Amino acid sequence: MPPRDGQVMLSNKGPSFVKRGSVLVDLISCAEGSGWRKIDVARKDELKALFLNGQYGMTVLGGVQLLHEEEDPDGHVLVDDGLHTVTALQELSATWDSTPDEDPSGNSWCVKLCDIFSNGLSVEFVQYPDEKPSDRLTRSEWNIAKHDVDKN
After folding, report:
1. For residues 96 and 93, what is the distance between their CA atoms, to the nearest angstrom?
2. pLDDT-flagged residues of the chain (< 50)
3. How far is Cα 146 from Cα 140, in angstroms, rounded to an integer?
4. Residues 6 or more apart whose Cβ sits within 8 Å of residue 41
5. What pLDDT does residue 121 have?
6. Burial state string for 73-99 with b = 16 or more CB within 10 A and e = fewer than 16
7. Which residue in 56, 85, 57, 79 sits closest to 67, CA to CA?
8. Domain boundaries, the chain
9. Distance of CA 61 to the CA centre of its chain
10. How far is CA 7 from CA 1, 2, 10, 14, 82, in A?
């Protein structure tokens, strides 16, 4: 029903869950337009250190969300939320490709990371209403609202 004069039409700007799946980290886009904020190198490096210490998936943080049926010009899936995680995993994956027997510290690679690099990252695919391709401002507003203010 359309709004009457003087009424404001409210809409749900948050994404809808579409499906779960696994995607190889090299097929996920970290290019401009992917994610909802720019990469903070310090945060990415912090995540790499945590992941190397076997702590991937051991937090209460939500998982990586990708945009359903949205890709960059190279055909890589766009990130909705989790760009720092994906970037950290991509860098570690490149290292794993060149030195699969030991991580940068000289230790054996964490089993969870080897699984991600071999079989793909477990992700959720989401879709925003009314917009195709999704608007980065809308995604930013939604993701800022769901993240801890101290981390923004």
Report:
1. 5
2. 1-3, 6-11, 152
3. 10
4. none
5. 96
6. eeebbbbbbbbbbbbbbbbbbebbeee
7. 79
8. 17-147
9. 12
10. 12, 9, 9, 21, 36
